[in-house]
Amino acid sequence: MTETPYHKWICDACGYIYDEAKGDADGGLPPGTRYEDMPEDWQCPLCGLRKLDLRPLPDAPAVAASPPAAPESTAVDRHGGRRFGSAEHLVIVGAGIAGWSVAEAVRRRDPNLPILLVTACEGAVYAKPSLSTALAHGRAPADLVEASAEQRAAELGIEALTRTRVIKIDPAKRRLITARGGITYARLVLALGARQRQLDVAGDAAAAVLRVNDLRSYRDLRQRLDGDRRHITLLGAGLIGCELADDLCAAGHRVSIVDPNQRPLAALLPADIAELLRARFDAKGVEWRLGQTLARVDHADSALRATLADGSTFATDLVLSAAGLLPITEPAARAGIAVGHGIIADRRLRTSLPDVYALGDCAEVEGRCFSYIEPIRRQAEAIAADMAGEHVPFQPRPPLVRVKTPSLPISVCNGRVAADADPTDWRCVSDDADGARLEHTGTEPAFVLTGSYARLGTELYRSHFG
Ligand code: FE
Question: 253-283 burial by CB neighbour count: b if 16+ within 10 A, else e?
């Protein structure tokens, strides 16, 4: 009798992967526990969502027994520089969830296509949302890594070229120029990600402002925190800022939050819910500096001195910026690819150049960038389908956002509508000691769930969007 293979499931909110083969020791599930056998009240160990919130990860792609030989790959050109890729290669630039998801989705459909993933970083596979909840879960940066680039590349039967920055895209020659040599492609996928918005901060310690947007910078943050209770100044009270603030408080650090808006999550939440979150953070000792920006930061004794735009100053140990993300578009723009806020792509994720796709944080579809795990994985599927000649376009719909603040868990769908709506446009379905459930009465679906109601997000989302 053949054993049914074990499957993996992903939590879209936090990126946690439930592997049936491994189980969940902390949740009392021994190795070999199938999804069907997980109790209905099981909770995601990272974000507290339920079994229902897990989505099946497609099975590991079938890899050709002998990985496809790339005719020109790693050859030497006439100037002595190395050459990678070939006129058959799919080349993916970027090793975030977007880049790896495309490699998986394409490989599942085609076990033989030569694929090369190139990235400026180390390429480790990790769930980025877990960066803002790792402290409270007692996870070290190394615990967040699911696989190294080399491991994942071997599993998928692809090549990975790490620590290699793409300097230029030459679409006429279907070639990338990198510091390590040229890369030839048949098709190109841009999964360039986003960078933190750079704030205009003066002072002799301005260069010490930390911007956490990847595993490497997160390691840096953890090193600076280690072993001590610190005072941390967070710039930005958006999603990442609030999640980091809650996580830092849980680990015993003191936190001040500076934000030009008058309330946290101003672009995502109705005012009264934002005020509730603010009150919960008050109870944790968070100090708010709202309606303010950081003007300068200077070295002072063994710490830093922060000066706000209104002239007030305070001592702090660390300044951490979470001021929002900007899509990385420059390499595409320089290659003549149409760029708006992000790299403009249609529902097939095709850019304005033939055989060049874009997805994830760097891409803009119908005027919007989709930077959460669930839509990015759907974009990767749409690219793989398009390459295979299938018509399965990406459906741009408002994402379900999980605000992973244990002080007040929140699920919000269509935050743009939610933040701008008039209070009379909300129907209060429930509001009790467990939390609140608000639904927007307008034509566009929008809802906000707090407290224990936040766990109903997936059900409600599916009722609107299927
Ligand atoms: Fe989760």
Answer: bbbbbbbeeebbbbebbbeebbebbbebbee
Residue 134 Cα to ligand 1 midpoint, Å, equals 12
What is the C-alpha to C-alpha distance for residues 253 and 232, in angstroms, rounded to an integer? 7
User: How far is 381 from 371, CA to CA, in rounded Å?
Assistant: 15
Low-confidence ranges of the chain (pLDDT < 70): 1-2, 60-81
Element (H, E) at 320: strand 318-321
pLDDT by residue (tens digit) across 79-130? 556 789 999 999 999 999 999 999 999 999 999 999 999 999 999 999 888 8
Return the number of other C-beta atoms located less than 10 Å from residue 233's C-beta: 25
Give the distance (Å) from ligand 1 centre to CA of residue 46: 5
What Å distances lie between residue 118 and 100, 360, 372, CA to CA? 11, 16, 22
418-464, pLDDT tens digit by residue? 777 787 888 889 888 889 999 988 888 899 999 999 988 888 998 88
C-alpha angle with apex 231: 207 to 239, nearest 5 degrees?
A: 75
> What is the C-alpha to C-alpha distance for residues 304 and 333, in angstroms, rounded to an integer?
39
Q: Judge whether 342 and 364 are in contact, CB under 8 Å.
A: yes
pTM here is 0.90
The phi, psi pair for 277, rounded to 5°, reads -60, -40
* Centre of ligand 1 from the C-alpha of residue 393, in Å: 27
